[in-house]
Every structure is written in C-alpha cells, then in structure tokens.
Batch of 3 targets.
Target 1
Amino acid sequence: MTERIKTLDEFAKHVDYSLLDTLSPDPQATLDGNDHDPRQVFSGHYVPVTPTPLTAPTYIAHSKTLFAELGLDDSFAIFTVRSTHSSARLEQVTATATAEQFLSLKQY
C-alpha cells in the first residue's frame, strides 16, 4: 500500500492543472481575478477568479472512497481545516453517519 497524503504541502506536489491547458479562459475576465459577480460568459470555457477564503469553515464529512481513490489519508480533511483556521470548531461525521447525527450538528 502506498503512503497516503496527509498535508496540503504533500497534496500540492501532486496537483495537475493540465486540464486548463485544453480550455480557453473568458477573454473578458479581469487580469487580477476579482471577477466574482455572476454573469453570462459568451466566449471561453471558464472565468479565472481569486479564491474567497471561508471565514469559519466547519468540517462535516468526506467520502472515504473518494479519499482512497485520490490517495488522501482520512486525516487530510481535518488537517486542512485546522491548518487554515485553527480556531474553527470541527465536527466529524463519517460518510456512514445517520440522519439523526447529521441533523444534530450545530453551526458555529
């Protein structure tokens, strides 16, 4: 069994943006990526934008099957939220959680 990815730094080494090489960006997109207003795109496949960070992300669940297919360790989901926002309250619900467990989650 190969070693699973556990950190963002490890994950970044495996990122492949080659799909973007086959697509055309919207020629009317802004150069700085501050193009967050919804609008119709007439030419191009996508609009490149700067990411908007979440102020207080809460971990809810992830697919263990998908993580396994991507080579990610289950701890990667929790590590990612903690390393980005150490003050975030984390709630873990596995993919097999019951509806009652899911509905009992509180928003923080």
Target 2
Amino acid sequence: MNLMGICEETTTGVARLKKKYQNNQLRYPAVAINDAKSKYLFDNRYGTGQSTWASIMHLTSLHYILSSDNLENKVYQVPDEIDEMIVREKLRVEGIEINGEV
C-alpha cells in the first residue's frame, strides 16, 4: 500500500493520533479534521454530512502538503486558508455571504 497520510474526524481519534505522535509511534502524517472550522460549524451542529465532503477537500490539500520532502510524521491542522474556503462555500450555498474573516 502506498499510503501518503491520513485524516481523522473524531475527537477521540485525534487524541489518539496526538498520543501516538508524542510516543513517536505515528507512522504517517495526519490531518486533524475534527479541529477544522468546516467540521464543527456544520457537521457537529447540523449533522449535514459536511465532514465527508470536507475530508475529501482536506485529503486533497494533504496531497499538496505531501509534495514536500520535509514533511514529518506528525498531526497537522487543516491549513486556515483551505478551511476558510470550505466554510465560505458552505455558507454561500446556504445564502450567507461573509465579507470579513470567518
């Protein structure tokens, strides 16, 4: 298997990944989807299934991050600019426009 990295979208899962990192047991770079604005603003509040779509987007961003040869096996947060883009798009679809920071 040619696994490049992983995503986790549960509080318990992210805590376990961080513990593995602290114990030097994390085998792949990981993105903590659970900590992303696009996760807790939509999926946690409305149960919209937003996390599935957001996970795909975050995996795509992980692909670009992984093009770097200096990537460590640790738990990464979702890049703010990508997370904000997802939040803005979801709000736009719901008819809400944001002109400032999310």
Target 3
Amino acid sequence: MERLLVATFAVVVLAITASEAGTRTQPQLIGATKCTWGPSFWCNDLRQSAKCGATKFCIKKDWVHRVYPVDDDDVCKICKDMVGQARDQLMSNETQVRPSVQTFM
C-alpha cells in the first residue's frame, strides 16, 4: 500500500512538472530587471525604492547614514521663520483658554 501511494505521488509530481515545463518562458537573468541591481539602485531615490519594495530597507540601512547638505537658501529661511513664529504664538499665553472663558464652555 505504501509503495502504491509513493508511486502515485511520484506520477502526480512528474505530471505537474511536465505540464509546467511547456508553459515556462525564458529564465530571467540576474540584472534583467533594474530591481535586481541591488541597493545601489533601490536606494537611489524614493520612487525607485518604492517600485522595488525596498523603502524600509533603504531607510534602515542606507538613508539613515547619509549626510545631506544644509539648505540655507532664502525660501528655507522664510519657512523656518514662519514655523518659529507659529510655534511662539502657540506656546504663548494668548492661545491658552482663560479660566473665565472656560466656565462658559
């Protein structure tokens, strides 16, 4: 009985393998698609890392170690000033709820 079961299983495996062999396309070589090029390609920018499904890898293993130049142009300075002013305004007492107003709420 055991031999019959093993023989049946072997025939089924061979039949499946033979049917798949006829439908296979050319094997894909490493490097045929850009995502097989590795981290030097994946982590080049966010778009490529997302396309290759490697964004988490790039964040943890590559981008965290990169040194980026400080952006001190006029637009950046204006944005930093605006954010600082907004933070100061929010942290000041003027934005806090006054006790007299709070009783009406």
